[in-house]
Amino acid sequence: xxxxxxxxxxxxxxxxxxxxxxxxxxxxxxxxxxxxxxxxxxxxxxxxxxxxxxxxxxxxxxxxxxxxxxxxxxxxxxxxxxxxxxxxxxxxxxxxxxxxxxxxxxxxxxxxxxxxxxxxxxxxxxxxxx
Length: 130
Ligand SMILES: [Zn+2]
Ligand SMILES: [Zn+2]
Prior knowledge:
The protein is of the alpha+beta class and 130 residues long. It contains 3 helices and 6 strands.
């Protein structure tokens, strides 16, 4: 219990919500779905904590809004590699954002530049909107 941070009902609820969702969720969507279970400040804090703990990751959408998704295939054990280096797909019609975990862009940086995180969002039309 000393090494692991205590799970609050709010963090469990937010994590469950994100894990059960097939698409990435924004702060507003999370707040709406929790329907008054916790206030916006609590949700912000929970999202920051879950991101720090590597349970979820942030996605910067093509319209610069922030979304959150859970990590199902991310391997955090390899500390030399960035944990979230997959591509995200943003649908222009339904505005849904999903992780394409099998699509990984290869970015080769010039010497002495160290890669920490890749934020790669591809926009287009998702299978549901075709
Ligand atoms: Zn769509
Ligand atoms: Zn992702």
